[in-house]
Amino acid sequence: MTANPRVFVRGAGGTSFGRHEGSSALDLMAQAASQALNTAGLQRTQIDGVLCGYATTLPHLMLSTLFCERFALKPHYAHGMQLGGATGAAMIMAAGELVRSGRCRNVLVVAGENRLSGQSRDSSIQTLAQVGDADFEVPNGASVPAYYALMASEYMHRTGVTSTDLAEFAVLMRENAQSHPDAHLRTPITVQDVLASKPIAAPLTLLDCCPISDGAMALIVSSEPGAHGVVTLRGAGQAHRHQHLTAMDDVMDCGALRAATNALEEAGMATSEFDYLGIYDSFTITLVMLLEELGFAPRAGAAARLRAGDFNRNGALPLNTHGGLLSFGHCGVAGGMAHVVETWRQMCGHAEDRQLKRTPSRAFIHADGGVMSSHVSLVLAREE
Prior knowledge:
By secondary structure, this protein is α/β, with parallel strands linked by helices. It has helices at 25-40, 63-70, 87-101, 121-128, 144-159, 163-177, 191-196, 256-267, 284-294, 302-307, 324-328, 333-348; strands at residues 8-14, 49-53, 77-81, 106-114, 199-201, 204-205, 214-222, 230-240, 276-279, 362-369, 374-383. The protein has twelve helices and eleven strands.
């Protein structure tokens, strides 16, 4: 029996997040893809696979080939994907399978959207609300923050997590974003600022929620490493327990741990072996619930680990050093991909002023889509 071929994350790129007035989704995607090609040391003619995330501002039926035409690519494999916030991680997992099978040698994974400047705030809220059940949730005027607030209320009731606990993570993400020139939100905030910010859907306030941004991210998954470092995709796993909040069986078992278990088994690793985390954080409650379900903190214990310094830049498990969705920003699929791009940069020593004193060697990344509906875990490893 032959061993599975190694899969490498060879290059990464991205735009700044925020407002890009006059830039379309395709414009932003092209900028990110160009940067990824440069870091990978590849020409466009060497890209033989393309995976493209959906864009709510460009609902084209053939977005992957539309982008290929715009970016002058002629791959022999291309398709688009829609899995909510988990799309980016799922595309990287799929790219790994394409490379491992020998179908492709260099797969460009790309997503971008002008979600802030390309549509009104009301339109964005209405579009995102469609992840709810069309018969039982959407007609009642629910929104994505409302879905997460209902889930937060249940989780906080059962575990004892407090609003102050949640606010601590908003502050940490903002602290991390302050050292990233491409972050959407960089103004310092305090726990009191979070608690006193505009109520959105109890118990969540404005600063418990990620901003809406424009931006794009791209990665290249290859059969060979590049010149910037040897980063391998060691493991990946998925889990899908429900689509709608009203169909969630148990707020303590959303599917994150099931996805992680699959990824860890493939990688042959345990949670205790990681020295970097990239965890999806559309809301503060998302981040806390994921950290605790994944086993990086006990139930109601994530905030205690944060206060102990474990998730800080110089702690045992640096977390979302770019600022996460909560402060770096959220432009759809690329928002989740930013966690992977930042991880790659940290592992390759290319995080500039954010570079950790101890370059990560084993990273765990997790993304979710919908209302903790679809889960994808990735394991990245740096090799000397």
